[in-house]
Amino acid sequence: MKNKRRVRLLGGIIVCVILVVACLGGQASIRLLFASPIRRALPWTAREVHEWQWNEPGLTGQDYTYLVKARISERQFDAYVDRLDLSPHSPDRDYEHSGFSPNWDPHLPGTDQSPVWWDPSASLDGTYVYDGGSWWIVAKWENGIVYAVSYCI
Known about the structure:
Largest sheet: 6 strands, antiparallel
Number of helices: 3
Radius of gyration: 21 Å
Strand content: 25-35%
Order of helices and strands: HHEEHEEEE
Oligomer: single chain
Number of strands: 6
Helix content: 25-40%
Shape: elongated
Structural class: alpha+beta
């Protein structure tokens, strides 16, 4: 009788641990499901991941800015660029939106907020871009870190 109680108790503990692990894994999966494409495209081994977003207030607000910074290898960055279908920026490149020019300002309309961790150099060397006409993704890899910004204006 004593052994049955121990077995049941141990079985109950194991089931609880499995449920907790499954819930935590499920929570991470759900978070990634609703994450920005620039976050989802990061390799699962990315470290020191920082994210920040701004959305235009109101029901019809479509303007947004989304920033991601993470530590990844150069090979992982190459795969990241492929996953997001980014192409190299060049000074003479024509973009769909005549006013668009890649830059590393977080485009924070109506606010002077800026995340303290957002610190890419101003250089556009090695920058890759997705041009969606009214929304863009801009990414580069510096010193082992990917900086990516997605915005719509």
